Amino acid sequence: MSGNQSNESNVSFNELANMLAKINCSHCPSEIQGTLCGQLSAGLRFSATQWLQYASCMLDDKNLNNNCKSLISRLYTVTLEQLEDPDFPIALMLPDDNKAIQLRTEALGIWCQSFLSGFGEGQVKEPLNDDIKEVLQDFSNIAQIENSINESENAERDLLEVYEYVRAALVSMFFEINHHQKLDLAVLDTLH
Question: What per-residue confidence (pLDDT) applies to 179?
């Protein structure tokens, strides 16, 4: 379940957390990736400059050095690529599995809340179907998850199940909403 992906181009939870700490930013990696996934799922796309401006604003207008800009840009690119490729499942950016379950549970709640915020900024042009509405309601419920969970095998299993549900629902929602966008772009390409 760990959000620390192994591919070199991926951005890990720890890598992003370290960058945020260096610029004295209180936001967590789960919040940033959740917001981005919500925006992308709702159809928003950014140019490199737009994304860096948005991220800087989101990070309390911190001055981003070149290393920060590179990491933030890579996060956008990799996240979009993973969402668009059904053969490469996206990993939600959460603390490592060896961290306390309370911390990971809280991060999953933050991820879901941030997803909803990002999704709300999106450009969904068509009415949402009942399945998507249900997923958004589920994400809202997960965002309110209590982090007073005790360490146990059952708690670990439950968290893994919720994590897998969120990840699968994210991919499904992304394809459902963005499928129309891809079709629209294909039609435009054939008209030119």
Answer: 80
